[in-house]
Q: What sequence folds into this?
């Protein structure tokens, strides 16, 4: 069963990043390590240690991407106006004016593009919003008690 829901665009972007890191990225880091090795004593060679650190971070990102890609399901946006993974929503908290609206992308953190905040569909608010449409008011449990949110707008990502 897929444990991550991604839009097709995010999935393809992550595939591209994975391919780039496993090909060009690994070759570049290997070249940096080799160049640093030629400089002599490795124990005090800052370039060598920096290249090895870069390699470690890159391999960690590769493993993370590999896990995401293997355990993801592509979710197509909903056209019925209901909030689903991949929807962009504008919400306002009960008692606030519409001018205080907040805008979120409901989805996986890897969906983030630009300055749009991402809300997990498994978070309390994200779960409450799933299936809601424009004009609906939903309630969810927060640490400080029950909060109400009104959906102002639903867009496809």
A:
């Amino acid at each position: 069963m897929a444990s991550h829901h991604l839009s097709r665009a995010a999935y393809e972007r992550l595939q591209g990043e994975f391919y780039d890191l496993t090909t060009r990225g690994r070759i570049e880091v290997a070249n940096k390590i080799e160049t640093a090795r030629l400089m002599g004593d490795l124990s005090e060679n800052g370039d060598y240690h920096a290249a090895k650190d870069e390699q470690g971070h890159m391999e960690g990102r590769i493993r993370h991407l590999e896990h995401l890609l293997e355990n993801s399901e592509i979710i197509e946006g909903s056209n019925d106006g209901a909030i689903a993974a991949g929807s962009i929503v504008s919400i306002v908290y009960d008692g606030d004016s519409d001018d205080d609206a907040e805008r979120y992308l409901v989805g996986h953190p890897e969906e983030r593009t630009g300055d749009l905040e991402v809300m997990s569909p498994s978070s309390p608010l994200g779960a409450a919003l799933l299936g809601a449409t424009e004009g609906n008011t939903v309630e969810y449990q927060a640490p400080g008690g029950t909060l109400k949110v009104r959906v102002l707008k639903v867009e496809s990502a």
About this structure: The chain has three helices and seven strands.
